[in-house]
Inverse folding.
């Protein structure tokens, strides 16, 4: 059991970090796009903000879907889905394409809502704080984006910075499908998605925390 818990925690933390790496790609590359497309400061700010906003709000539906389908399926699905906007952005050459790609990229930022219940289910109450703290280290993904994306773009070209992340997302998605599993006894929620989403949306705390 301890080995299974550790594997689940490692997979979740790495998946969280890789998804946040993808989520944070546009910000460190903003100067490149500013110079390439002649963007104004407002346009740059909007471009950077779009995936952040979508990722924050997307945690509500992804949390509901995780309750229903489990963290294993959802982490794999979000990682694979994240490949699409990342590859799209690798070859985007105009501002509106960047906004569209950033909109879709926001799903990777919502991965936080998958990992919390997934990790929580594997650990007893007395160990959950430590486990969730370790999982939270996946936030380092945004820092990785900041440190890694610009040098890669400068040396091998802008598409390479995105395609590197696309490969990482694919690998962690496959790892979750092949090695990951949900904690035994995790109850599946049968209540319809719409009803659960509406119930969460009615809570003031939902929007404050999002």
């Amino acid at each position: 059991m301890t080995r299974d818990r550790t594997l689940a925690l490692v997979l979740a933390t790495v998946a969280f970090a890789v998804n946040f790496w993808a989520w944070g790609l546009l910000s460190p590359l903003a100067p490149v796009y500013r110079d390439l497309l002649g963007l104004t400061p407002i346009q740059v700010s909007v471009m950077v903000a779009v995936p952040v906003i979508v990722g924050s709000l997307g945690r509500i539906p992804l949390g509901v879907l995780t309750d229903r389908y489990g963290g294993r399926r959802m982490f794999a699905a979000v990682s694979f889905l994240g490949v699409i906007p990342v590859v799209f952005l690798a070859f985007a050459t105009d501002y509106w394409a960047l906004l569209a790609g950033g909109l879709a990229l926001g799903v990777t930022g919502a991965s936080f809502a998958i990992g919390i219940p997934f990790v929580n289910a594997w650990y007893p109450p007395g160990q959950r704080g430590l486990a969730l703290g370790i999982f939270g280290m996946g936030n380092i993904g945004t820092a990785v984006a900041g440190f890694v994306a610009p040098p890669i773009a400068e040396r091998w070209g802008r598409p390479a910075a995105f395609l590197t992340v696309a490969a990482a997302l694919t690998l962690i998605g496959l790892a979750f499908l092949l090695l990951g599993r949900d904690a035994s006894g995790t109850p599946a929620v049968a209540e319809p998605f719409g009803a659960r989403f509406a119930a969460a949306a009615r809570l003031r705390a939902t929007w404050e925390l999002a």
About this structure: The radius of gyration is 18 Å.
